[in-house]
Amino acid sequence: MRRVLVPPALRGYKLEWLRHDLVAGAALFAILVPAGMAYAQAAGLPPVTGLYATVVPLLVYAAVGPSRVLVLGPDSALAPMIVAALAPLAAHNDQRSVALAGLLAVLIGGIMLLGSVLRLGIVTGLLSKPIRLGYLNGIALLVAVSQLPTLLGISVEGNSPWEKLFAAAPRVFAGETNVTALLLGLGSLALIWIPRWLKWKVPGVLIAVAVSAIAVALLGLHDRVKVTGALPQGLPAPALGGIGWGDVLALLPAAAGIALIVFVDTGTLSQSLAAAEGGRVSGNHEMGALGAANAASGLLGGFPVSASTSRTPVAVQAGAKSQVTGAIGAVLVLAFMLLAPGITEFLPATTLAAVVIAAAAGIADPAGVRRLIGMSTSESLVMLAAFLGVTILGVLPGIAVAIGLAILDFIRRAWDPYRAELVDVPGVPGYHDVSRHPEGERIPGLLILRFDAPLFFGNGALLGSFVLKELDQAPDGTERVVLAAEPVTGIDTTALDELVQLDEWLDRHGVDLVFAELKGPVKDRLLKYGVGARFTPEHFFPTVSAAVRAFQREEEE
To answer: Which distant-in-sequence residues (6+ apart) come within 8 Å of 58 by Cβ?
Structure first.
């Protein structure tokens, strides 16, 4: 009998879930169309491409994705990245922009699929919390700024959000603001936010889109404000004409950066959803599914997609049980595109701008910024660097700068790690930092030190200086130094040479050097480096207490 392949997220599907998935799919559909069109507009692409980038990824992820209820699609956070990647190549040509956006999605998909095969799910560690806070808040600002001219009803040229804002500012001061468009936009924002505050079940986005479109139609405002117009009738189709190898090479760096961000954001949301159900999702599987969804989106007229932090909660709150919800939402969008594309004829562009601005406000996290500032100065600086880099240099260069600073901060910490003398605290088991326990007592003849970092070329000499400094300040008669080496998780040849020189100096001055709690792999490396004759088994103890007891027994004998 031929084996039937069941999508991962549908394994164990129960028939009683179908009713919940149908209702959730219908609720999801209500925001898929306006959100897809709005994010396409924010990315500088025709609104219909946002629907292609909605339908195709939803169906592909339903077939291969590991998460039961994750919703993929266009995302406001990706819009400025797409604009930054395409602007130098597109030359304000819609057809070429669509082709390049599709190519970008295909490249992102290919990178993710390769990463999944190579099991590179761990790369998410490159985007630490400070970097993510900085870039998300920076993205939120850029997205909001990019939509202000449209909200004001002013058409401007410019590749970056700031160029558009600076081009719009003189026209605003000259009184060229389209008051009708502005009122429609502000009214749409109110209709989006008020239902959120009141916790209505009907999405505010749907209310804003319906009310603004009806207002434009009934009041005859389509001559006074820019409208989306009727969408072209048809299904997603390839749109990669005119692409060359030069375009591939030009977009590869941006594709790699966006792929990292897409995976980090999606992986975080996917794991959170799985944890709520007491499970986990394979990062490599998630990366592969995301890659397939992006590649398919690009091949069929769409653009890069990510997990949606706004549409996924809608599906969850509506009772979604599986990826059938996303598939139903996609089918309903397809039906809309085939049967009723003219409904958007009177939808004002300023309302779509309001949808994007509301989404941008949702991804900003000022509370997280305040918490981080209160917790760590160095990480706050990394966050600030990410924010300024994203808002001034651009999204991808800004994140690259922030990652570089985070790596330098890590190296700084390893280069100059925390160091401490350990003492015996009466009534407290173990040995503790004397700076925190000044009431502690030293063991006569013994100096116990801790060095909180792996040993490498940058800090090997620092260890020697630290030991000699502490030995110089220790009471006379110190016969042995115990290095509490649990934090020492590695050692390179340069640091080993420094360690040997330290041991030789101590030996000449009648002081022994021993290790406590040194990791097995580090011991193996010492043997591999050929210093086993110097650091014999008698130099190693499983715990600091064991090293102290051994010394005290020797003294008694």
So the answer is: 71, 72, 73, 326, 327, 329, 330
Q: Distance (Å, rounded) from C-alpha 61 to C-alpha 326?
A: 9
Instruction: Give per-residue pLDDT as tens, 100-151.
Output: 999 999 999 999 999 999 888 766 666 778 888 888 898 889 888 989 999 9
In a domain, 331, yes or no: yes
Residue 398 inside a domain? The answer is no
**pTM exceeds cut of 0.85:** no
Three-state SS sequence of 95-122: HHHHHHHHHHHHHHHHHHHHHHHCCCHH
Neighbours of 340 (CB within 10 A): 13
Q: Is 13 a domain residue?
A: no
Pair (455, 357) in one structural domain: no
409 within some domain: no
Alpha helices in 118-244 (DSSP H): 129-151, 161-173, 179-198, 204-219
**Domain ranges, residue 248:** 18-365
Using left for φ > 0, alpha for ψ between -120 and 50, and beta otherwise, residue 221 falls in alpha
375, with CB counted inside 10 A (0-12, 13-18, 19+), is: exposed
CA 499 to CA 73: how far, in whole Å?
Answer: 55
70's tokens: 């994750």
Angle at 39 between CA 226 and CA 265, to 5 degrees: 165
Q: Is 23 helix (H, G, I), strand (E, B) or coil?
A: helix
